[in-house]
Amino acid sequence: MDVFGSFALLLAFICAVYSFVGGIFAIRTRHPLLVKSARQAGMATCGLIFIATFSLVYLFFSDSYWVSYVVAHSNRDLPTFYKIAALWAGQEGSLLFWSFLLAIYVFSALFVYRNKNGELMPYVGVVLAGVQIFFLTLNNFVASPFKVLAAPGANGALEIFTRADGNGLTPLLQYPEMVIHPPNLYSGYTGFTIPFAFALGALLARYPGEKWIHLTRKWTMIAWCFQTAGVLLGAHWAYAVLGWGGYWGWDPVENASLLPWLTGTAFLHSVMMQEKRGMMKVWNVWLVFLTFMLCILGTTLTRSGIVSSVHAFAQSSIGNWFVGFLALILVVCLVAYVKNRDYLKSENRLDSIVSRESSFLFNNLILLVSCVAVLSGTLFPVFSEWLSGSRISVGAPFFNKVNIPLGLILLFLTGVGPLLAWRKTSSGSLKRNFGWPSLFSLAVGGVVFALGLHEFYSLICLILCVFVASTIVMEFYRGARVVRARSGASFAASAVDLTMRNTRRYGGYIVHMGMVLIFVGLAGAAFNKDVQKDMQVGSTLQIGRYNLLLQSFDSKPERNYTSERMVVEVLQNNQPLMMLYPERRFFQTNQESGTMVAIYSTLRDDLYVVYAGQSPDTQTPVIHAYLNPLVKWIWLGGAIVVMGTIVTLLPNRRSVLVFAAAQEPSGSRPLSPSLAPSVTLREGHD
Amino acid sequence: MQKRAKFGIGIGVIVVSMAFLAWLGYGESKTYYHTIAELPTLKGAARGHRLRVGGTVEPGSIHRLAGRVDFVLQGEGQSLPVSYVGSDPLPDTFVDKSQALVEGSLTNQGSFVAEQVQAKCASKYEAAPTAGPPAKSAATGAESGQQSSTM
Fold this sequence. Notes:
Distance between the termini of chain B: 41 Å
Structural class of chain B: alpha+beta
Shape of chain B: elongated
Number of domains of chain A: 4
Radius of gyration of chain A: 28 Å
Strand content of chain B: 25-35%
CATH class of the largest domain in chain B: Mainly Beta
Distance between the termini of chain A: 54 Å
Oligomer: heterodimer
Shape of chain A: globular
Largest interface: A-B, 95 and 66 residues
Largest sheet of chain B: 5 strands, mixed, barrel
Number of strands of chain A: 15
Strand content of chain A: 5-15%
Helix content of chain B: 10-25%
């Protein structure tokens, strides 16, 4: 099966090369058969990658311990569920997984548009094939997952040998949540390849700007949705598994996943400027290019060890390949831009600072400044070493100081932007739209301040969250009222109907509401509390309104690990509330251990209890308990963001009928009755 | 030109204030990376900086005491005695022969006081897994006790 898999991978490489070269010839000669064959080669590449991936999965399931990758990341005792996760546990497999997800996107794009956009698709196909060639080169020649174990045999020649069992999967990956985080995040990273290919293809083909934007919007939203989910799942995993009480440490690999999210968000907003007013064309093209390059940079940082991170210490030469690829992409984008930039001229200019264009401009500015800040902070060790010889890194204070105010400004824009008019907003409109949300949010702020919340950023955050939430509710209310007046349905049904008639706008509002919840959750971090204590059986620990009583402490062998577990009873006002079981798992095969945090999560706060090992002098178990306010809001907000994104991807419930004259009537002739108005169906936009 | 000026000012204010905050944050958190061999050569101001040092944990050197954990870090043939004084438990991957990265400061006696320890299992010498074992101690959690917000 390993031979089969590696052969499939090699064939995929050959097909990708054909798709690339053939695609270029197809563009030049415009021969329809060549166009078709290049496209089909592209689809065949994807099919072969699927086959190779399934082969590797089969090797895991069949306990094939002569394949070195399987030996490194699996063992017989590993539950089947985790044998799937083992696929991306190491360098070679995760690169193949990247190719696999990319192939799903490429296949979909080639298939969906096989009979459409004939002017553009050959270019897109060439760009996609080019990216696939890079990853297939790595899969085949640099980091092959199908390498076998070989040692000199009895007669001196190399022979394949089989191990009795593998090394097992690293314990930190053996959680259900860790199984879903990489597929989501990788689907985000690879997903941005599609908008990139369309943007670069359109630039090379000098394809009309509005059309390529329109085509790529849904693909970008899908990739963005996965990226958001991936980042939040990673944060949740870090929170629930690592046991340090936090969910974001500004680690280089975490930052790497955030960077394309920032520029991707900027892009999703600035495309509206291009669609509505023909502005920001150059900017948009470069935003997409930058987003894709940041995805590649992200994976470079993770795999190369250029910057030391909890995720990756080993220096690996594979980093050089990625850096080379990044340089190549940059050169190609620059050349394509320089040659074709005259077709990207803007149609309109900014009219007023109190306009929706202006809010989009500031939205983009904030996101880009944040991106630059996070990027500089992450790569600081590299730059400082080049420039001054000493390797200096920066930590959380740097990132937080810059990103908290930026986040708050962005939150403000989220409330203000959708309610500003295009071009210029009148002061009457300003008063009408922002009057009561501003008053309401300031009132809430005043009340909360009087109740004792004096922390500056938390107060501002709360006021802005209430402000944005009010503007969103107001929008739904006004729209639903109109629908209700016509249909007589209930408010809820009207709101749903409203949303489904203009999924992009109202889905967007749902996403914004989700972001508000996330900000509420983030604001809670200012008030985290924690306590650590040695506990005898029967002793208690007080944290906030909870009392933790250690009932017992046991040790239990499981299928592939032994668990040391504390049995803790949680009491509130002396009433037993629930039981928690913080534990440590010790895996015999690879002698590694993992912490399993016990969390009791409510909307108000999370009670987060860690078994912190045994006290060195007394051998008694040590409990480290945290009380983290509002954390649940982050995960809830994330779920709402994802749901909102799905809503925006849905087609509008009913198309808007527009009547337009079929022909221009000449000045003298009256409109003749035979001149039938043509009916154009247009997707409802805001 | 007037609206251009307004936009320019708006953009300028944001960029300048962020640059200022970035500079403040840099000053608060800059950490110099050095190898163990370089540490004795540090003089004057360089000795007082926040430092980051990497090495391998000497087998048998981990001693857990009340309030701190002492161990010895080895690298390029040199040894560095380290005392970890952070309040949070050390990462699960912090065992004999693991690769560790410590962050803290140098004492006058030439030993190291660490506020943060990151560790990675040394047995996996292939390039680190991407969805790999992030293992950190309180890391910024240790600092967050003193500072008001950590993301």
